[in-house]
Amino acid sequence: MSAPGTRVPFGARLAAAMDEHGPLCVGIDPHGPLLRDWGLPDDAAGVRELGLRVVDALGGRVAALKPQVAFFERHGSRGIAALEEVLAAARAAGTLTVVDAKRGDIGSTMSAYADAFLSDGSTLAGDAVTVSPYLGFGSLSPALELAEATGRGLFVLCLTSNPEGAAVQHAVGSDGRSIAASVAAQAARHNAGASPLGSVGLVVGATIGDAARATGTELEAVNGPLLAPGVGAQGAGQRELADVFGGARGNVLASSSRGVLAAGPDGSALLAAARRSADEVRSALRAGR
Ligand SMILES: O=C(O)c1cc(=O)[nH]c(=O)n1[C@@H]1O[C@H](COP(=O)(O)O)[C@@H](O)[C@H]1O
């Protein structure tokens, strides 16, 4: 399902995976304290082991896995090699991956990031990558084009889960719209006509309260997946998911890292935690799909 080169668009593959497993993405965030709790060293071997154990426990059983690149990068080239192995294992298990790299740069550099994370044959490519639109949405063109050509997807930061994001994302641009509303409108343009779901998603934190309404961000019009971090460790639960996303909740892919990984390292405990979390988000979002 997630083999590189497949041309079934990411949005369609993700919609099928969400229907099958529930709308939950489990983040693979091997940070120092978690490694310690799992009895693993805080080095490249430790992040490799944690990542592979998560894939072993959850591969084929959740809609998506989201390795956070920084936790691998902080261990240098051997950390990157560990990320490559984790991505390969997820691919082999048939589980979609969102590579959480949050890249964004001017066109020629963005092209190189797109090659790294979205091209067939790249060892760092997953099924989708998180990107930042704050050098201008148009600067993402190389990634938008390569994702479309390879059946992969993007998650564009829109209304992030951290409180500091509001200073940029709620600001009003020269067209009178908030930055968040404008990012959402441009994603919607790329997803127009796609069915069941476009491949240009947004990141909208489950912790943002009424920020979508307050900024005029039309989530229902996006027609793409809405990656919703903030569930679990950052405090968002069922009520927040239902409130934040309103009529767009059928397109939400809730994301939890620490909230699930804290149940490890035992594989069956991890699976039980992921299933519990998936059931909770499914029931919070049920009315929308
Ligand atoms: O793009 C993301 O995944 C992301 C966006 C955002 O607005 N907030 C956010 O927390 N994230 C990521 O989601 C994960 C949240 O981890 P937990 O709080 O442990 O579930 C981290 O990897 C963050 O980098």
From TrEMBL:
Pathway: Pyrimidine metabolism; UMP biosynthesis via de novo pathway; UMP from orotate: step 2/2. GO terms for molecular function: orotidine-5'-phosphate decarboxylase activity. It comes from Isoptericola halotolerans. SUPFAM superfamilies: Ribulose-phoshate binding barrel. Gene3D superfamilies: Aldolase class I. It catalyses: orotidine 5'-phosphate + H(+) = UMP + CO2. Its EC number is 4.1.1.23. InterPro entries: Aldolase_TIM, OMPdecase_AS, OMPdecase_type-2, OMPdeCOase_dom, RibuloseP-bd_barrel. The active site is at K102 (proton donor). Keywords: Decarboxylase, Lyase, Pyrimidine biosynthesis. Belongs to the OMP decarboxylase family. Type 2 subfamily. Residues 23-273 form the Orotidine 5'-phosphate decarboxylase domain. This is Orotidine 5'-phosphate decarboxylase.
